[in-house]
Amino acid sequence: MLEATSTINESKHFDNFSMEEKTPVEKINLRGNPNQKDFTSKVGKILGIILPVEVGNVVVNEEISIITTGPNEWLIITNNKVKKDNNSLELENVLFENISKTNLGSVTNVSDQFTIFTLKGTNIFEILSKSSPFDFDTLSNNSSVQTLINSIDVTIFKKDDENVDLLVRRSFSIHLWSWMCDSARFI
After folding, report:
1. DSSP conformation letters of 4-64
2. Which domain holds residue 143?
3. 11-65 pLDDT, tens per residue?
């Protein structure tokens, strides 16, 4: 069941930078063989999107974003928040019935495992670069990267130069939030 309470109950605004927690949204880990036609065709029909194959690629439609996190692994994120009174995870159930139960792959709900920070502004990568080994100049729009920020594993989904979603494990979210607030003050 999706945890409806937020770990961060505030948004922050600095010079040319703002951040807030985007929660609750459904997040599903999908694993399968991208070379197996039954797997890719069933997933494509259910999601209405062809799965990207190259790690770091992202595809988006009105309802979902799909991040390729490994050669046989994807993270599916709903674009709309789940309402507290409607905690039904319909997409997970449909994928589970058609993929996991038929042994074509694995479907796991990771909604409670990760939280998403929505970052906006012109100073996003200047702040993230303070404590990350990744060269953000190499990250193109509508792509993702898994890296470390302040020694914390994160997945970054760059929508454009001024709009980024940062996925972090819920157990590290308060620590990373505090570090980002401190770092943004000095930009």
Report:
1. -S-S---EEEETTEEEEEE-S--EEEEEE-TT-HHHHHHHHHHHSSPPP-STTBEEE-SSE
2. 14-22+113-185
3. 999 989 999 998 778 999 999 999 999 999 999 999 999 999 999 999 999 999 9
